[in-house]
Design brief:
The chain is of the alpha+beta class. About 45% of the residues lie in helices and about 10% in strands. Strand 23 and strand 24 form a beta hairpin.
Length: about 1900
């Protein structure tokens, strides 16, 4: 029998007689003070309502009063943060190359110096050493759980073992299992059975079972055994917390790294032409046709043979190894199907145009070498001459292109395909949106260059270059044409050649690689190896990435030259490029990169020559390394030469025909972009380099009248020069101020000290106009400079220029621009990774002083300088009464310097704050100082306030004419960035504030790092926290937190996404502050924020949104790595000394176990009392959120339940995984922070998912009946224990749902039920607390609980057992075969799939319950279920190993959960030993134990569970042997079931328990009739109902019990052993019957016949007969024989009626079985019992729950129901005739109404019979069996009932098929006539079955 959780509340509060119930009602109504839920929110019993946040203790003061040494050993670490909590880390910057690549030390200007510093400095990290232990940084994920689950012991379960361990061979063939005929089976002597039992082997005996031990010793031993081999971390066995709820999840940003796209490795293997006569040189580059852009620099390669290279010996120097590269790595940020790899070939210049030079290659073939020998020789000779003379010049030759998309797609993307199969749900750290390089259109996504198979290409067709079409524009036209099917290029005759190249994805860390600057990239094993070059990318579109290394390259692209108007022989034109550091020819710098097979750097380079062309076009690219310092004299010099191809006497090889130049610096900026330059015929005059060629110098001749004839473009790729006018101007001005070099020329203006400030302000404002790409690239530089301007205001003319406000505004705009540019790369919280990395790694406080605030010299200024600046009131009040700092954003003086004159000025001047949110009363014109609040940082005296405020004065000077004398030293000023940021933020104007709020996280993190560096560098970590930061700064922080909190609240309904981001940023900021400042101060900020939210909640239209944000806020705070320490776990909890009464004082409630008042300290630890929430502040906040979410009236409950429970679960998982809390004593102290969870879960019990029953049957509400509706004992109403006991002693079966004298159950409090997933998670958290809490503390708490509370606690434990019951491997396999859609409640769906309980209606109800509380907001991004990064790729189909693992973990979880429940039950039992209400509680405890023994449990648990059961029975035998017998019956049933287990360990313990039960019963009354009876009944019930029952294993257990009896020395002199032996043999006989039943399992008629005979055999044992009658009814109903089932129930009812008639003579009860003879005459069989056998006084007889009035009613109702289903409506009336008087006597009108309704239906159906078909009850056939094959059935005849209208042929076929299958073909024959059978004529070896002669209905056999 499965117990329901309502049973023990019935047991504790069984309803007795009317007088007792009335007494209870009177007492309860007098003392009632409300139900637990209604009072939880506002009851004064908790001291302070949960909706209010109690003021926390002053953390620092508490620690001062309790030194850490006060705690023993490991607990000491819980008292305070570790001393090494905060540390400064210098992380070396990752350098990709073996050399740093920065310019050598020389005279560097400020900008270059700053860049070099930035790219070489180590990262500076303010590191929290223990942060990795918090759940935010070490999340508990599926992977980490799986890792920690390794090494789990496999638990053995009966249901899993059944498939593996077989029972004995086929029983029917085993002679030991056979028995006589069924007629005498039940009570035959059974000699053979006795023999069998004696010869069986027993299981091993428990060694100490028969010893007599003291109960305390038994308990101690059991506890010690339970503690062995336990799982240390319970939550490791439970699924990881839901990642969607993990708002506290963080990951450290990746350090800034150089940006790369997808990298492709191209190897040039060989180049072979039909004829080999001269060297050919190759150039590779990538082009994007769609963007019409060259997207890489050139790669030059030389595949010539040594003999060909030898032709150029005269011109070549020894080639540098870097120029011998044949492979290159290209980077592509934006992969596209429009990218081509273009290959251009060049050759040495020779006489003749390109077509003439290509002719031999197009005409001659290798096969014709012999035929063309002479021609080839001539060509070789000519080539040799040209190489010797013109070897330094090149000419265009041929080109081709490879469409990369074809290579990628044809090579197949095998890797990507395989990856997609193994796709997993991304964890929080993986959820980074696609970066800028991935922002491609959907069409581009198909084209990826990262995962294709390597391909080797052989390119055979080249196109000759056309002299007039060499430009890039022409190339793009050709490439576009190549993609068309009818390409014009295909019609051209190609230059045939064979170029072999390899294209593959580049490896992660290739060896022998050179950077674009020719630096060795790590790893570079051997400098002599042939290198691979990294080719610099020119991305097709903007790439937003900061510079991380020094790079300073210049690319020169000559496009065209127009000398058509130039007279003379100027046809073979080339351009020489030189980088000149001065005007002398010797000042050409070797900065031009060499191409292939040449020196690394050269001083000059030439463009290829187009033969006889006065207006050539060029495709050349010159790559230059810019010097670190570019000066005004640096310029590019272009010299134009005419090259004489044919040697003529007196003609020079090259003749200069023009000159032009580009000065590289103009107004301090690098000049880049396109130029169209005039060309001078004459050499430039001296000092030409400072002018541009556009200036017409006198006496110079110009080509084409000084028009622009030379088109050239310069492109810089530089991490030094921003190439943006706004950034250039900003950097220039900042560097000028740093160096103080005045006057200074900026463009056309000369800046003096008087005008520079105005220019600087203008440039700061103009920063927002900068182009995004350079701004992001130089973002670190810009932010560093802005920080410096804030912290170290420049001093101009002796006056400090405070740029704090304008720099802060510029910073806000820069951050906003960077954010916007990188919007696609933001993480889920809206953080920009680039900015996060800047703060974490790169940001540092300017200056190197170890102690910044103290080390800064004071500034002494003349009073006159201050008179020019406006003053500021000493303090201001903000709107909404927010107190803000008294510091002036426009003034700066080193902290600590006090100046009386300054104070006077400040006190008498106002300041214009009209732009800010300051109260208008203090706008311009305010002349008086407003005092700040007095405590804790200020005195109340106004003068003192002014004096104090002056310590923060700053001097903001608009630009004063007074300058200090030249001799005066330059003053410096040092401010603290965090102070300035807080101040500027607080007083900022609305536009700036909006920008700051959008990216508040950045400014918060900047402040936190600044504070951390301030403490670390200033050696202030030893300073008491209250003195670390000045009060004015903390005031600013308070004002800031208040304003940001207000923004969250006000924006939540307008812009949910921003509100969510702000909320998280604020929570993280406060969490960070906990590591730095006074923690009590931070707690006060948290409390203030909570108050703000609470105020808003009262008027909010949709409070669920605000509650969700507050819950996220709390969860982030609780994610702090020292969360446990922050809750002051080691201080003793004291009841608050507040006016509000404590729990005990309001209730004066007596506990269950003693008359004295409960201990208030213990109660306050287990409730969300004022003292608990005050001391354990964060834990109190979290549990309060949970309590409020669990309230029935909570809005948006389903989502809030999940969030609140998930937060607690996540924290507990973190504690389990945290090595700091591994010790049991420490973990017990941690568990104390969660003790109120037990009360919360107990009070939420009615709304938890009902795991014990199907949905809809809220069994648990019955257990709340007295507490929820009639008054609540634990919430103010007290219930006298004696009254409670009187209630418990009612005559009817306690806890029965159909209890007649109970009134209708009062409707339970309505509220949103928790989902299965949320309920299960809450329960596992409860188990965690029970497992880890101090047992002594739990015992004291249990002792203080009132009876109803204890009842609910037991109910909770029962539910825990049901929720974590093991499902079995088969269930996992079954689940796996189903496919589920992703839902919010996956676990519930799985369980419902297992239990088969979900229906369409429940599904609809669930969906309506879980409807989002956010309404129809389409743009809600913070609903995690609809966020952009959510992927529903949960795999449903699991491998066998995964299912095995799941079953292993589930088995361990079920075992551990059950053991925790068992531990708790033991604690409760120890607590109640002296209780007055002991029997009630122990009965309920035993019911929980019985339920645990009846559910699917592991062998390990069952050993401990049975040990506990034995201890309980030995200590409290009256539980089973004095009260009603239901508990005893249940226990016997469970023990017998385990005696038949296939697992020997379970059998051993179950046999021991059963034996001790008998012995205990015997010792009380010298017989064990009750146990004997119950065991016999249980076995009958078991064998009748259990399918996979193993009688062989049960026989072994019976033998074990016999062995115990024989070895029990203590009872040897009694008849006990003899009685045990009799019982065991009797049970053995029943098992023999079972064998018979199993034999006929497939033959329902024979099976029912056998059951009938067994039932008839039990006529002397009413309980057993009743059991078998019920078994038969169940089998009949299963087969659809409803009329027969009804007759069985009538017989059962008659049997009970006989017993009741003997007990009492009640007029409303039937007089016995005679009352039923109208239904069936056979019923008189039951009357025999009363004459000689039945004695109502004999113990153990008729003790089942059916032998009561209630049982009789139940049997009659079942009989009526079966008759209705069977269509026997007349019999329904007869049954109800007996039932109606009983119901009338009890005045059960509800049931009477139902009965009469059913009668009406029955009569109506009889009346409306339209045809005879509906009342055809069945067809009957006589069936006989003949032949030895049938054994006992030989010559027996039976009447078979078949469904109506069954033909003879049908039954004949069915029986023939059945017996043929059983005995084999040709063995069974059917005789189909009605004549008598002559047996002599039949074959004795065959089975003959005549089937015929329909039987008369009179012969109906119903049994």
């Amino acid at each position: 029998m499965v117990l329901k959780p309502r049973d023990w509340m019935g047991l504790l509060f069984g309803v007795g007689s009317g007088t007792v119930a009335a007494e209870v009602r009177k007492q309860v109504s007098r003392e009632r003070s409300g139900s637990p839920h209604s009072s939880r929110r506002c009851s004064s019993s908790l001291g302070v309502p949960l909706t209010e946040v109690i003021e926390p203790l002053d953390f620092e003061d508490v620690l001062l009063s309790r030194p850490p040494d006060a705690e023993p050993g490991p607990l000491r670490d819980l008292v305070e943060f570790p001393a090494d909590d905060l540390e400064l880390l210098l992380q070396p910057r990752e350098c990709r190359t073996t050399e740093p690549g920065i310019p050598e030390d020389g005279k560097l200007d400020a900008q270059v110096r700053a860049a070099v510093e930035m790219y070489t400095e180590d990262w500076i990290i303010a590191h929290r050493r223990y942060q990795h232990l918090s759940a935010a940084y070490s999340p508990i994920t599926l992977e980490t759980q799986r890792e920690r689950q390794k090494g789990l012991t496999r638990q053995v379960f009966e249901q899993d073992a059944s498939g593996d361990e077989r029972s004995s061979p086929d029983d029917s063939d085993d002679p030991r299992h056979s028995s006589g005929s069924p007629d005498d089976t039940p009570r035959s002597s059974g000699a053979s059975g006795i023999f069998d039992l004696r010869n069986l082997a027993a299981d091993s005996l428990l060694p100490s079972l028969l010893e007599r031990m003291a109960p305390e010793d038994v308990d101690r031993r059991n506890e010690a055994l339970r503690r062995q081999h336990r799982s240390r971390a319970l939550l490791t066995l439970y699924p990881a917390p839901d990642e969607d709820e993990a708002v506290e999840r963080c990951s450290r940003p990746e350090p800034p790294r150089e940006h790369f796209g997808q990298r492709i490795l191209v190897k040039c293997l060989s180049l072979k032409f039909e004829i080999e006569i001269e060297p050919i040189f190759g150039i590779l580059a990538l082009y994007d046709v769609r963007e019409k852009k060259k997207i890489s620099e050139n790669f030059y390669f030389d595949l010539n043979s040594d003999s060909m290279k030898g032709l150029l010996r005269a011109h070549g120097t020894h080639p540098a190894i870097s120029t011998l590269a044949r492979s290159a790595i290209f980077s592509v940020t934006y992969p596209s199907p429009d990218i081509f790899l273009v290959i251009k070939l060049e050759k040495v210049l020779q006489q003749g145009d390109i077509s003439e030079c290509c002719e031999p290659y197009m005409v001659m073939k290798e096969v014709d070498t012999a035929k063309n020998k002479e021609k080839l020789e001539k060509l070789r000779l000519g080539a040799e001459q040209f190489c010797t003379r013109l070897g330094r010049y090149r000419m265009p030759f041929a080109w081709t292109a490879v469409h990369l998309a074809n290579i990628v797609s044809s090579a197949g993307q095998s890797d990507r395909d395989s990856d997609s199969e193994g796709e997993r749900r991304p964890t929080w750290t993986d959820r980074r949106r696609r970066g800028p390089q991935d922002r491609t259109s959907s069409g581009d996504d198909a084209c990826s260059f990262s995962g294709f198979r390597p391909a080797t290409l052989t390119v055979t067709n080249f196109f000759k270059q056309e002299a007039e079409r060499l430009s890039d524009e022409d190339l793009f036209k050709f490439l576009a044409d190549m993609r068309r099917p009818t390409s014009l290029l295909r019609r051209l005759r190609p230059v045939t050649a064979q170029l072999k190249i390899d294209i593959s994805p580049a490896p992660e860390n290739p060896h022998f690689c050179l950077s674009p600057e020719l630096l060795h990239v790590k790893p570079y094993p051997d400098p002599r190896g042939r290198p691979t070059k990294e080719i610099l990318e020119f991305p097709a579109r903007e790439v937003y990435a900061p510079h991380t290394s020094y790079r300073n390259l210049l690319y020169v692209y000559p496009h065209s030259l127009n000398f058509s108007s130039r007279q003379g022989s100027v046809r073979n034109l080339t351009v020489r490029v030189q980088y000149m550091a001065g005007e002398d020819p010797s000042q050409a710098l070797p900065v031009i990169f060499g191409k292939s097979s040449c020196s690394e750097f050269t001083r000059e380079a030439f463009t290829p020559v187009v033969y006889h062309n006065k207006s050539p076009e060029f495709y050349e690219e010159f790559k230059l390394r810019l010097p670190a310092c570019v000066t005004e004299n640096h310029h590019l010099l272009f010299t134009f030469y005419h090259v004489s191809c044919q040697p003529r006497p007196g003609t020079a090889l090259e003749t200069p025909v023009g000159f032009t130049w580009i000065p590289l610096l103009q107004h301090g900026r690098l000049r880049t972009g396109p130029f169209c330059l005039p060309v001078s015929v004459d050499q430039p005059p001296p000092s030409y380099s400072v002018l541009t060629p556009d200036v017409a110098l006198p006496g110079m001749r110009w080509v084409d009248g000084h028009k622009g004839v030379f088109s050239v473009e310069l492109t810089a790729v530089s991490s030094v020069h921003p190439q943006d006018p706004y950034l250039d101007k900003f950097f220039t001005l900042v560097h000028v101020l740093e160096e103080g070099a005045f006057p200074f020329r900026l463009k056309d203006a000369v800046l003096s000290e008087s005008t520079v400030e105005q220019e600087l302000r203008a440039s700061l404002v103009a920063l927002r106009l900068a182009s995004p790409e350079p701004l992001v690239a130089f973002s670190h530089h810009v932010l560093d400079k802005l920080v410096r301007l804030v912290v170290r205001p420049p001093i101009i003319g002796g006056q400090i220029v405070n740029l704090g406000r304008v720099a802060f505004e510029a910073m806000a705009h820069v951050v906003s621009l960077v954010h916007r540019s990188l919007e696609a790369a933001q993480d889920a919280r809206g953080h920009c990774p680039l900015l996060a990395a800047y703060v974490y790694y790169a940001f540092r406080l300017p200056g190197t002083e170890p102690s910044l605030p103290g080390g800064a010299p004071k500034v002494t200024l003349q009073p006159a300088t201050l008179a020019h600046g406006p003053g500021r009131p000493a303090s201001l009040y903000l709107a909404r009464s927010k107190s803000i700092s008294s510091s002036n954003p426009d003034l700066a003086v080193a902290p600590g310097s006090v100046d009386d004159e300054v104070s006077r000025i400040l006190a008498s001047k106002g300041i214009d704050r009209s732009h800010s949110w300051v109260n208008s009363a203090y706008a311009p014109g305010g002349s008086k100082a407003v005092l700040r609040r007095a405590p804790p940082y200020c005195g109340a005296d106004p003068r003192q306030a002014i004096d104090r405020s002056s310590s923060r004065t700053s001097s903001y000077l608009e630009g004063s004419s007074s300058t200090p004398p030249a001799t005066q030293p330059r003053p410096t000023v040092q401010k603290l960035l965090h102070e300035e940021l807080a101040l500027q933020w607080v007083v900022s104007g609305s536009a700036v504030r909006e920008a700051v709020l959008q990216h508040a996280w950045f400014f918060f993190q900047l402040m936190v790092k600044s504070m951390a560096l301030h403490l670390l560098l200033g050696q202030k970590l030893d300073t008491p926290r209250k003195l670390r930061f000045p009060g004015r700064f903390l005031d600013d922080i308070a004002a800031l937190v208040g304003s940001v909190g207000l923004e969250v609240i006000t924006r939540v309904h307008k812009d949910v996404e921003l509100a969510e981001h702000l909320n998280a940023s604020l929570a993280f900021f406060l969490s960070d502050l906990l590591s730095l400042v006074d923690r009590g101060f931070v707690f006060s900020l948290v409390r203030a924020h909570y108050k703000q939210v609470a105020t808003r909640l009262q008027s909010a239209p949709n409070p669920a949104v605000l509650l969700t944000l507050r819950m996220d806020f709390t969860r982030i705070l609780c994610g702090h790595e020292h969360y446990v320490t922050l809750n002051l776990p080691c201080c003793p909890l004291s009841p608050p000394a507040s006016p509000s009464p404590s729990v005990s004082s309001t209730t004066s409630q007596s506990s269950t176990f003693s008359s004295q008042t409960p201990d208030p300290k213990v109660i306050s630890m287990f409730e969300l009392s004022g003292s608990f929430r005050q001391q354990h502040f964060l834990a109190g906040l979290l549990l309060t959120e949970l309590a409020l979410a669990l309230e029935p009236e909570a809005e948006g409950a389903s989502l809030l339940h999940k969030k609140a429970i998930s937060a607690v679960h996540s924290l507990l998982c973190g504690h389990d995984a945290d090595p700091r809390y591994a010790e049991a004593t420490v973990k017990a102290r941690v568990a104390e922070l969660y003790l109120p969870l037990l009360s919360l879960a107990r009070d939420t019990l009615p709304r938890l998912h009902d795991f014990a029953e199907g949905p809809g049957q809220r069994s648990r509400l019955a257990s709340m009946l007295d507490s929820d509706t009639e008054g609540e004992g634990d919430m103010g109403g007290t219930i006298n224990p004696s009254v409670a006991m009187a209630i418990a002693g009612g005559p009817l079966a306690p806890g029965s749902r159909a209890s007649i004298s109970q009134g209708p159950a009062t409707a339970a409090r309505s509220g949103c039920a928790l989902s299965a997933e949320s309920s299960r998670t809450l329960l596992v958290c409860v188990l965690w607390v029970l497992k880890n809490a101090e047992p002594a503390l739990l015992q004291r708490w249990a002792a203080d609980l009132a009876l109803p509370q204890l009842g609910r606690l037991l109910d909770l434990l029962y539910l825990c057992l049901a929720a974590f019951e093991y499902k079995g491997k088969k269930a996992f396999e079954r689940i796996n075969s189903l496919t589920f859609k992703k839902s919010l409640d996956m676990k519930a769906r799985l369980e419902e799939a297992i239990l088969g309980t979900i229906g369409a209606r429940q599904e609809m109800v669930r969906r309506s319950r879980e409807r989002s509380p956010f309404g129809n907001q389409e743009n809600v991004r913070w609903r995690k279920s609809v966020t952009h990064w959510r992927q529903t790729s949960d795999r449903v189909d699991k491998t066998k190993d995964e299912m095995e693992h799941e079953a292993l973990v589930d088995g361990n979880l079920a075992t551990e959960a059950s053991l925790v429940v068992l531990d708790t039950l033991e604690i409760i039992v120890q607590t109640v030993m002296l209780s007055e209400a002991r029997e009630s509680i122990l009965g309920a405890v035993l019911k929980v134990v019985l339920y645990s023994l009846g559910s699917a449990q592991s062998a390990l648990f069952l050993q401990h569970g049975l040990a506990t059961q034995r201890a309980l029975v030995s200590k409290f035998p009256e539980l089973l042997f004095e009260e009603d017998t239901e508990l005893c019956a249940d226990l016997c049933l469970r023990l017998l079931r385990h005696c038949g287990s296939r697992i020997s360990a379970i059998r051993t313990h179950a046999s021991a328990s059963l034996y001790l039960l008998m012995r205990q019963n015997f010792e009380i009354g010298h017989n064990f009739a009750r146990v004997k009876m119950q065991v016999t009944m249980s076995l009958s019930s078991l064998v009748g109902t259990t399918q996979n029952f193993s009688e062989e294993h049960l026989r072994r257990s019976l033998k074990t019990i016999l062995t115990y009896a024989e070895e029990d020395v203590g009872l040897r002199d009694s008849t006990f052993a003899e009685q045990v032996q009799d019982l065991m043999f009797n049970l053995h006989m029943i098992l023999t019957d079972t064998v018979k039943m199993k034999e006929h399992q497939e033959d329902p008629e024979m099976l029912i016949d056998l059951m009938y005979r067994i039932a008839r055999g039990y006529q002397g044992s009413p309980d057993l007969r009743l059991t078998w009658l019920q078994n038969m009814a169940g089998k009949h109903a299963e087969l659809g024989n409803h009329a027969e089932a009804a007759q069985c129930m009538v017989h059962a009812a008659a049997l009970v009626a006989e017993y009741l008639a003997l007990l009492e003579d009640s007029r409303h009860l039937p007089v016995g079985c005679v009352s039923f003879q109208n239904i069936s005459s056979n019923v008189l069989e039951e009357s025999a019992i009363s004459d000689d056998i039945l004695s109502p006084d004999e113990e153990g007889f008729c003790s089942g729950k059916h032998f009561t009035e209630l049982g009789l009613v139940g049997l009659l109702e079942q009989a009526a129901a079966y008759f209705t289903m069977g269509g026997l409506y007349e019999a329904v009336n007869e049954v109800y005739k007996t039932l109606i008087p009983i119901l009338e006597a009890h005045r059960d009108y509800k049931k009477l109404a139902a009965v009469h309704g059913k009668l009406q239906e029955a009569f109506t159906k009889i009346m409306h019979q339209s045809s005879g078909w509906e009342r055809v009850f069945g067809t009957y056939f006589r069936v006989g069996f003949y032949g030895a094959r049938f054994g006992d059935l030989d010559e027996q005849e039976f009447v078979y009932k078949e469904p109506s209208i069954t033909k003879l042929a049908e039954i004949s076929h069915r029986l023939e098929e059945f017996y043929t299958e059983r005995f084999g073909e040709d063995v069974v024959q059917i005789i189909k006539d009605s004549n008598p059978v002559d047996k002599t004529k039949l074959d004795p070896q065959k089975g003959w079955g005549p089937c015929g002669r329909p039987a008369s209905p009179r012969c109906v056999y119903w049994g």
